[in-house]
Amino acid sequence: MLTLQDIQDAAARLQGQVLDTPCVESRTLSQIVGAQVFLKFENLQFTSSFKERGACNKLAQLTPEERAHGVVAMSAGNHAQGVAYHAQRLGLRAVIVMPRFTPGVKVERTRGFGAEIVLHGDTLEEARAHAYQLAEQQQLTFVHPYDDEAIAAGQGTIALEMLQEQPDLDALVVAIGGGGLLAGIATAARALKPGLDIVGVQAARFPSMVNAIQGTQHPQGTSTIAEGIAVGQPGEITREIISRLVDDLLLVQEGDIEQAVLMLLEIEKTLVEGAGAAGLAALLRYPERFRGKKVGLVLSGGNIDPLLLAAIIERGMVRSGRLARIMVSARDIPGVLARITSIVAEAGANIEEVHHQRAFTMLAAQNVEIELVLQTRGKPHIQQVLDELRAAHMEAELR
User: Cβ distance 181 to 279 under 8 Å?
Assistant: First the structure.
């Protein structure tokens, strides 16, 4: 059974091997959600993820014989980089099995840490089965991403650091994929501060741990922006610990996670991947659950695809009204487009796109539809632009 002593021993092994990341209050986020919010910046680790804590703790405990043969892991993301990096540091052979769909940038980043990359299978299950096969054939030690007490103990060192720096926390809110992070944190936190409110968060599209523990039957999706916690089968070791020590499990929607990623980028000037923003997403979706409490959040990782980040930023601007699409209908006469753009400019909005449409419309033949994508200051500003266009005898509506 995983104990506080295991986690304290892990902390001693990790001393000087991983970063003791800051845990500081975000005053702005605290004002927004109505709770005192403390952020643990695990996205500042060398591989931009907490995963290297568990990997380092596991590798540091290998026997001389195991060290001589090396290790194998299956991962398409942060676990792969954590194992590869610390294996390189410790002079160990590391084989990382990745599914064939793994983005090239992640493959090359992992290879850059000296690991041997094997691309195998079209699913995570196929890649995992191949990793176990390699472990048996080549006498490699399999390093599981979450269902291993040594891995969970390494992740649990986060709780030791958080409670040392902020001992009066009332609650910890932690993302769940396979459960290694939450199992380790819950073990340490419950032993150090028994009355602490410990809450796990899963993406609604991958509710495997919630279903397993609460007996629910939430359907599983096929994708989520929180890919780091997109785990279809929770760990057995981690499930037992979480069911025993964790107070509550919450589900968050894709929009909540997107909003949290964008808020951390804008307010804290820190880049966090979807899984790392799940804790803040829970505070945004369930503010009454945490109101008035001192809440610790783990920003578990910062490895996010730039194109996905660009999409999140753009969609967030639409939700907040800073990017708007409006449709203007007007008489098709010379100068009408210039007049429309002039009105928009005088209202202080910036035009990002213009689409001038004559044929594909149900308007009278003498009229034209003009679609504008505008950069604005927010929803009241959009309304101002619409009002000024209508005052000029044009039909204008938000699309």
Answer: no
